[in-house]
Amino acid sequence: MDSTMCSGCLKDKDLKEAIQVIFLDVPKPILGQWNFDSQILLKALNKHIKDPIKIPLYILKKLPYVLREKDFKVWVVLGKKEREYEILEIFSEKPSEILGVAIDLGSTTIAFYFYDFIKKEVLKKFSITNPQIEIGEDILTRLHFARKKEKLEYVNRITIDAINKELRSVKDKIYYITVCGNTVMSHFLTGLPVNYIFLEPYVPCTNWYDLLEAKELGLEAHLLAKVFIFPSAGTYFGGDIIAGLYFSEIYKKEDGFYFFIDVGTNAEVVLGNKDFLLVCSGAAGPALEGGILECGCQAKEGAIERVEIDILTKKIEYKTIGNKTPIGICGSGIIQLIAQMFINGLLSFEGKFQKESFPERFKKINDELAFIVAFPEETAMGNYIYIKEREVKNFLRSKGAMFTILTLLCEKIGITFKDINTFYLAGSFGNKIDVDSAVTLGMLPEEALSKTIGVGNAAGEGALKFLKKADFEEIRSILGNITYIELNREPKFMEIFTGAQFVPNVNLELFPKVRKKLEGKVCLK
Amino acid sequence: MDSTMCSGCLKDKDLKEAIQVIFLDVPKPILGQWNFDSQILLKALNKHIKDPIKIPLYILKKLPYVLREKDFKVWVVLGKKEREYEILEIFSEKPSEILGVAIDLGSTTIAFYFYDFIKKEVLKKFSITNPQIEIGEDILTRLHFARKKEKLEYVNRITIDAINKELRSVKDKIYYITVCGNTVMSHFLTGLPVNYIFLEPYVPCTNWYDLLEAKELGLEAHLLAKVFIFPSAGTYFGGDIIAGLYFSEIYKKEDGFYFFIDVGTNAEVVLGNKDFLLVCSGAAGPALEGGILECGCQAKEGAIERVEIDILTKKIEYKTIGNKTPIGICGSGIIQLIAQMFINGLLSFEGKFQKESFPERFKKINDELAFIVAFPEETAMGNYIYIKEREVKNFLRSKGAMFTILTLLCEKIGITFKDINTFYLAGSFGNKIDVDSAVTLGMLPEEALSKTIGVGNAAGEGALKFLKKADFEEIRSILGNITYIELNREPKFMEIFTGAQFVPNVNLELFPKVRKKLEGKVCLK
Predict the structure, then answer these.
(1) Is B242 helix (H, G, I), strand (E, B) or coil?
(2) How many Å separate Cα B395 from the centre of its chain?
(3) pLDDT tens track for B434-465
(4) Residues of A with Cβ-Cβ distance to B54 under 8 angstroms
(5) Do B196 and A64 make contact, defined as CB atoms within 8 angstroms?
(6) Do B206 and A235 touch (CB under 8 A)?
(7) Residue in A with minimal Cα distance to B197
(8) Could you tell me the domains of chain A?
(9) How high is the mean pLDDT of chain B?
């Protein structure tokens, strides 16, 4: 049996996988040839792997027996480290499953991808709620909570426990874990002090995590399993965004310029290509995601993700995720809702509600004017689902900030939106966003209409990609290429931002298509 | 305070030490500069160390606090690994002692060297008895004993326990441990299976040990302390010999050819220089060391290490180690004893005892003829100290084998003893050996008379050297340069060996100086 004859064994294209499962027909030791078991194994392995290979004691202790079980035919599980490989397991029979787990450690949900290195496929993916929510919805509350050592250890423990619960049933088969999370999530995962993150000058403990052992984190996996945590580029530019960038590969693009826009709890925008990565973050904020709306909710079952208003027939049609009875509106629903209100004359240029043509949908709730999307009899909880005028104003500030950032980043390097090759939209609603609505509202420029690609949970996909291409060097080079810009301090920021809070913009010439659409429908006030 | 101002901090010449203690005045983080504690630390360190530096979780967890204890002034303890450095500790005050321990794990004794990386000096050195002796004096007995897993674990445990007893009192200050031992000792230390070492084709588990953690071996040292175990080149060419070679540096010599001769429980001979290392081992055996003589003993207090016979005055004078009452004869004493017997006509050319001129010193013991070195009233135990004719014959076989090996190794590469630059004599009696006696007996060629350097416990010194120059690459290159030769199988071996069992040799022309000395003293039989 030749070492190239097996299915599931190493092929050239797999050479970068975090885990490699290699079949070896090890030449047997011969009398008088100064053989060592480790030596003949490495010699056989070196035909596949040229890099240094570490054999840990755990493997050495079983090596002589495993080699002789099936006449020196073995399956070796190799883990890729930054500067060497390590033998993580050795079998005398072909293993059925060799798993890697990619984890997107969000502050709200934790997403898991279970990948099989033998079948080369994702076996399952799912999300759970981040248990830290019991401490507080927002990160600042959790940071304050974790100032004391024992409290930090508590946050660390509940996080690890929640992850372990999902790993436990297959733990012995898990050899590699990749995790991406924002800077604070990564600190909580590793139990690193967060005390100086919220004190001036706002210094996190670390940006880079050397490859860790699952056991030193307390993660339930194979004894020698490795954990790669995506690095941060800044306090507000965490491993989740680095993972997203890694997935988008805009850092490899040779032609033109690319936007990578991640709208999650924060909004991070990256403009770049293979030569540079210009980064701005934190300015847009959670208003775009829907999290802070009274009727806002995560993009889960029952969330309204599509809304259409027909002012002529006085009908509002919506679609929920999973076609369930509605429980609230998620980010993509909110954008379309506000855009539809504007197109149908229910929202003015300045963001004021216009009750006149659809009065039965407007109602004061707790003394504030709200637009009703669903009446109590339609909803799961029997309550109104609505958006308030004040909430729309907040949204317009956020979308205005987003447009301002996009504009200023282009100006920084002397290009216009026409020079943008692709807008990658990531984040909790990156895939679902109605680009038409986003452009109608002036959140994205009109150039985005034909050039936008939704990349969904780019962070999670990036973590998964690292299982398939464990290229530490590439991650380091992304980090090295990033330049951070504080745009809020630019004098021009306020000037553009002020006009960008109108719908779509105070300068309608920037949005000729929106203008044309409006001319056919309602009068500009 | 500048980082060059401290004593005990890194200088260029120290760059290769296994442990480096570096003072850093870390630039403080500045608002708006995207600082991370790990990042500013590494930046400061990179002025001293260009290689990659790993910061383990243990350090990261304390880093923010230690940095701020004394205004970002810190002492960093760095450990050298094969492909990177690792931060092992960080202090806000200058540490008083940072220790490394070099251990020569002999099958009989374990020698310790405690080295202080701050003072740059050996604080103490001493030996203890290898506790494995309770299982059996010789290695084969121990190998058989350790065939079963639980027995192997027992041998491993008593070995580790014995070492720990010596480390315990300063364990928190120990950051690096180097160990050299023969192939079996290294397996026992690491708990690796030895089952196939004594079964054909005699395959040990491993030759190379990747740098280990002290804690994974159960050694009592700093939490992150590293352990380097010298590799083996062959079953009978272990880490002790590699360490000895490393100390002798014959692998660096550019001019001429060098012998490295280690006579311990086995005898290993290396001939080489910077271009090659030709190795032969195991042939001479323990007869040279004295271990298998009825009155033989280790080179310890009370061991007779020098003997002089004056046949005219009928006096035998001896000197013991520590000038104690004699307990036995050690290796160097045996060589001189046999040489003195020969010179004084008490031993024939063929190795037969010649009673005639000193009959009161010859006596039958258990039916075998013996030469009395000390009478019962002179000795510690009240017994005779003697050497038997049969034992001398055994010795002559061993010394004959040694001379044969030296001769054949030279012939292999087409040189003669005249081309040898230096004979390095290592091993338990390398320092003490009376070269004149060894030449008189024909164990070493006459060229050795003026060219021999005793390097004492070269193995232990090699282990110590690795603390000061942790050059993994050099050790790998020594291993790579070694060519092993099985001389016993050469047809010429028996021819030379037969003649070399005479004293000094059947071919007296090889030993003109010995011949001259004999002509003035006694008749050649």
Answers:
(1) helix
(2) 22
(3) 899 999 999 999 999 999 998 888 999 999 99
(4) 210
(5) yes
(6) no
(7) A36
(8) 12-91 (3.10.20.880), 99-229 (3.30.420.480), 240-287+395-514 (3.30.420), 295-388 (no CATH)
(9) 91
Cβ atoms < 10 Å from Cβ of B275: 11
Query: How many residues in total does chain B contain?
Result: 525
Q: For residues B504 and B502, give the distance between their C-alpha atoms in angstroms, rounded to a whole number.
A: 6
Tens digits of residue pLDDT in B484-499: 887 777 889 889 999 9
Question: Which of B64, B83, B195 is nearest residue A83 as measured by Cβ atoms?
Answer: B83
pLDDT computed for residue B158 by the predictor: 98
Pairing of strands B257-263, B315-320: unpaired
Structure tokens, A234: 């800044």
State whether residue B485 is helix, strand or coil: coil
Residues of B in contact with A191 (CB under 8 A): 57, 61
The phi and psi torsions of B323 (rounded to 5 degrees) equal 55, 35
Of A61, A204, A486, the CB nearest to B36: A204
CA A228 to chain centre: 15
Contact present, A388 and A369 (Cβ < 8 Å): yes
Over residues A285-299, the mean pLDDT reads: 68
CA distance A128 to chain B (A): 27
pLDDT at A6 over 50: no
Angle between the A472-481 and A239-248 helix axes, to the nearest 10 degrees? Answer: 110
Cα dihedral sign, B424-B425-B431-B432:
negative
Could you report the per-residue pLDDT of B394-412, keeping only the tens digit for each? 889 888 989 999 999 999 9
* Cβ count within 10 A of residue B360: 9
On the CB side of B197, CA atoms within 13 Å amount to 27
CA distance A450 to A439: 11
Contact: A196, B232; criterion CB under 8 Å: no
Q: How many CB pairs under 8 A join A and B?
A: 128
Q: Do A203 and B484 touch (CB under 8 A)?
A: no
- pLDDT number for residue B138: 84
Contact between chains at B38 and A195 (C-beta distance less than 8 A): no
* ipTM (interface pTM): 0.89
Contact B56 A210 (CB under 8 A): yes
What ranges make up the beta strands (E) of B93-236?
A: 99-105, 109-116, 121-129, 174-181, 212-213, 226-229
Beta-carbon neighbour count of residue A374 at 10 Å?
A: 23
Interchain CB distance below 8 Å, B54 and A486: no
Tell me how far apart the alpha carbons of residues A93 and B105 are, in angstroms, rounded to a whole number. Answer: 38
Residue from A61, A153, A203 whose CB has the most chain B CBs within 10 Å, to mutate: A203
Residue A123 sits at φ, ψ, to 5 deg, of -80, -40
Across the beta sheet with A420-427, the strand order is A452-456, A420-427, A257-263, A267-272, A277-281, A482-484
Residue B364, φ and ψ in degrees, nearest 5? -85, 125
Yes or no: say if A318 and A306 are a contact pair by the CB < 8 Å rule: yes
Query: CA geometry: angle at B184 spanning B238 and B224, to 5°?
Result: 85
Using a pLDDT cut of 70, give the percent of chain B over it: 93
CA A47 to CA A24: how far, in whole Å? 10
The CA distance from A123 to A98, in Å, is 11
Q: Determine whether the interchain pair A203/B65 forms a contact, defined as Cβ–Cβ distance below 8 Å.
A: no
- The string of DSSP codes covering A413-480 is TT--GGGEEEEEEEETTTTT--HHHHHHTTSS-GGGGTTEEEEESHHHHHHHHHHH---HHHHHHHHH
pLDDT above 90: residue B192: yes
Q: How many CB atoms lie within 10 A of CB A13?
A: 9
What's the whole-number average pLDDT of chain A?
91
